């Protein structure tokens, strides 16, 4: 198989950083991007080209960056939409600006980077777009609504993208990690608003303590997740001889929780079937 050229967002830590190393180890080429170039410049020593890319920049700026990458490296075969952060706080404690910022990065930033590359993929009739979603794209937890909302949004918009570009030969892949040991929950990355509203304060304090305790103790191994994504994209390893699904939950917690939600949804559909199916306009006989 000819080496693929990958472009990854958010390479300064966590999955993004791991993608760079695993892609190189498979003999592929990778263009690493980060909003703070100084955090990834050391990758140049490995022969990895690095570009400054804040996914909240304007569409024009992101288009120009992608054009520069394409001019220098000829093509991109795989886009990994990885960059995101998690905002923690109740509906009442998060300001409107907090909500906007969460969606600006996790949803609109991802849209902008993907839109910048779509014409290239469409013209080549080739390209794989990977989106790192989350267990939070299935389940909204208390104090996590903004993040869950952004990941639910991603699920819907990517499903639509898949439906409108599959006939062009483009591939789309939604990866849904459970809890993995990255810097997502670190104080430098997570943006949290502890509540001092009496009705929420106790639960909020417990949640903040819980998340601090979970940081760097998550069960998921980022190396294993990234290797599976590489297998899926390259059609090897765990994907050998398999039809690659459009979305794939990864992690024991994700398997358990997603299955439970699917079963509960099926049970509701069955229990309420007659009501659910009762709403069409009666046709006159
Ligand atoms: N770890 C988990 O348990 C888990 C679970 C489900 C989903 N995910 C998803 O996995 C992806 C990667 O997160 P991670 O777990 O690897 O966390 P991480 O270690 O905190 O990495 C997040 C990366 O995103 C970058 N980033 C944030 N905002 C950005 C922006 N505006 N422009 C460009 N880069 C930006 C960060 O850059 P800076 O260094 O500059 O902040 C960092 O490189 C995210 O989409 C996250 O939602 C993670």
Q: How does this structure look, described?
A:
- The protein has 285 residues and is an alpha/beta fold.
- The protein has one domain: NAD(P)-binding Rossmann-like Domain (Rossmann fold), CATH 3.40.50.720.
- The chain is 46% helix and 13% strand.
- It contains 8 helices and 9 strands.
- The chain has a 7-stranded parallel sheet with strand order 3-2-1-4-6-7-9, with helices on both faces. It has a two-stranded parallel ribbon with strand order 5-8.
- Strand 6, helix 4 and strand 7 form a beta-alpha-beta unit.
- Helix 1 crosses helix 6, helix 2 runs parallel beside helix 3 and helix 3 packs parallel to helix 4.
- It is globular and about 60 Å long.
- The N and C termini lie far apart (62 Å).
- Bound molecules: NADP nicotinamide-adenine-dinucleotide phosphate.
- One of its GO terms (molecular function) is oxidoreductase activity.
